[in-house]
């Protein structure tokens, strides 16, 4: 029997823009950008001496007009660092859609923060995202994603961080990412096994539009839901690559109408103009059309 994708739980996460919480201009600008999600970063884009100011900036930002139509994620510093506890207190006060944990090594990193949120009686709507960007994180990614299945775990999404992973492993940045692909696919496999989303890593060279295009195409083909971004110029290409194309939508609609035909009633496999389609393709087609509808329903920023 084919597994159904729960359509209600599909999120648009094509373009996930990182905004340094220390940068007031970038924070303000996030209102007018057409990305699906914003990560407000308290970690690596904020120097140690400015962490306090960055938290204050986020307090001010969240007290202002709401960020319409975008998921709001706060990336905190590691809970084992001197900044983690104050960052988490801020998350509990601001209640974004999710908290993003950096450098997750093992399932306990996720369950520990789930427990802290439960102890604080944070609403279930506050989810957890986890960065996979350390060698141990990649080795344990199946178990980390599986931790999302434990009751109350809140885990929704894994985000790959190739800057840290390259730093820790010595893999060089190269077009095509051939030495990294096995690890990237481990992440995709892990999230799909447990019903989560995976977001591909940032592409640092934001002036290289051609290289970014190629990497988005690769990320989509690998099964990522979207890409973490560092610059507004990356939003449009990410939305284009990670959203369904007009051709894919037309194909999906054809699959749906083929199965809606009375002749297809009771059939699991049909011949659609010389191509076999199965009911599992119907499930995929419905998910794709649902995503296309979510995109059309989005108000432009
Ligand atoms: C990389 C940047 C420092 C470049 O900034 P800047 O020099 O200001 O670029 P531009 O002049 O081209 O900017 C044009 C306008 O766009 C606004 N802008 C730029 N970046 C952003 C942004 N991220 N969000 C919102 N708005 C942005 C500028 O303010 C300009 O606006 P205007 O004044 O109206 O013209 C900068 O892009 C930047 O800081 N990017 C984000 C860096 C970041 O978040 N880093 C952490 C995430 S990366 C990561 O997590 C790696 C991972 O952990 C791993 O291990 O791989
Ligand atoms: Mg990192």
From TrEMBL:
Pfam families registered for this protein in UniProt: HpcH_HpaI (PF03328)
CC cofactor: Mg(2+)
GO molecular function: (S)-citramalyl-CoA lyase activity; metal ion binding
Binding site for substrate: 75, 133
Gene3D superfamilies: Phosphoenolpyruvate-binding domains
GO aspect biological process, one term: regulation of cobalamin metabolic process
HpcH/HpaI aldolase/citrate lyase domain boundaries: 14-232
Record-annotated membrane-spanning stretches: none
Keyword annotations from UniProtKB, A to Z: Lyase, Magnesium, Metal-binding
UniProt similarity note: Belongs to the HpcH/HpaI aldolase family.
Record-linked PANTHER family: CITRAMALYL-COA LYASE, MITOCHONDRIAL, CITRATE LYASE SUBUNIT BETA-RELATED
Protein name per its UniProtKB record: CoA ester lyase
Taxonomic classification: Bacteria, Pseudomonadati, Pseudomonadota, Alphaproteobacteria, Hyphomicrobiales
